[in-house]
Design brief:
The protein has a single domain (about 1-280), classed as Endonuclease/exonuclease/phosphatase (Deoxyribonuclease I, Chain A, 4-Layer Sandwich). The chain is about 20% helix and about 30% strand. It contains five helices and twelve strands. The chain has helices spanning about 20-30, 55-65, 145-165, 200-205, 220-225; strands spanning about 1-5, 35-45, 70-80, 85-95, 95-105, 120-125, 130-140, 185-190, 215-220, 250-255, 260-265, 275-280. It is globular.
């Protein structure tokens, strides 16, 4: 199974041009992915630089044939013309999808600090080795405190999922929305975390859990423990980091460590202000 994560900046490249065809061509050039996790996907948001207010969800689906898409807008506001403007994350999968959760992450008030609503998508993917949860998110950029609160919320959701993993799934007495569906403990968490490798937030996310809840592991570190992370922002000049940093990660839980085969970063593309990262699991 090959999984890619990429903050596409609503398709806006380093040249300032929004080009979703270029995004898809870059993805297809890198590999043939079973799961694609994208952050910063916009629908009807002409205020974004370079955007014409296009429905990027529809465009991406038309260009990526054979995928099922799950979209979770974090921002969902009126556009002033009777429609909605949306901005959030999406997961596309060639593999069968089970239950889906769209979690709005905490958004605590910080009147003097810019921030926006953030979301976490959680989907159950059925693989040849069994079901696994795939989660993607985009944490707050401007506020470390917001990121810490959001990470704690993600960890609580992971504990909740683990506690639900042992439920009985086929019960004739409970049907419809009460019917229990699989929510396995093992998970892949990816996205633009907006923290560098040396940050306390990364340590917070990777901290062990109590009891038998499986912890998260950084896939890059698992494969290359003595090699620094490849930067995913600032390789090409941007105004939001002073030096190249790694902000984009793919984490996996304990039971998936033995399946991890590779981790890669595309440092060349300028189709976004972030670089795509991807893994392969056997």
């Amino acid at each position: 199974m090959k999984l890619l994560s990429w903050n596409i900046q609503w398709g806006r490249g380093m040249d300032g041009r929004v080009d979703l065809q270029r995004i898809v061509e870059t993805i297809c050039r890198l590999d043939h992915f079973d799961i694609i996790c994208l952050q910063e996907v916009a629908v009807n948001f002409p205020e974004l630089p370079g955007s014409q207010g296009e429905n990027q969800l529809e465009i991406l689906l038309s260009l990526l044939q054979g995928y099922t898409a799950v979209y979770s807008p974090a921002t969902d506001i009126p556009d002033g013309h009777g429609k909605r403007s949306q901005f959030g994350n999406m997961i596309l999968s060639r593999l069968p999808i089970g239950q889906v959760w769209r979690h709005l992450l905490p958004w605590n008030a910080e009147p003097e600090t810019p921030s926006m609503q953030r979301t976490l998508i959680e989907v159950v993917i059925f693989t040849a080795s069994g079901p696994v949860r795939v989660l993607t998110t985009h944490l707050e950029y401007y506020s470390r405190r917001q990121r810490e609160i959001q990470i704690e919320a993600i960890r609580r959701l992971h504990v909740e999922a683990h506690s639900m993993a042992g439920r009985i799934f086929e019960s004739a007495e409970k049907n419809g929305p009460f019917k229990a569906h699989q929510r396995p403990s093992e998970a892949i968490l990816c996205g633009d975390m907006n923290f560098p490798v040396s940050s306390d937030e990364r340590l917070q996310l990777l901290a062990p859990f109590e009891n038998d809840v499986p912890a998260f592991y950084d896939t890059r570190t698992l494969l290359y423990p003595d090699v620094p992370h490849t930067p995913t922002v600032g390789i090409h000049p941007v105004d939001f980091v002073d030096q190249p940093e790694c902000f984009d990660y793919i984490f996996i839980t304990e039971g998936l460590k033995g399946h991890l085969k590779s981790f890669q970063t595309d440092s060349e593309t300028q189709a976004s202000d972030h670089q795509p990262v991807w893994i392969e699991l056997s």
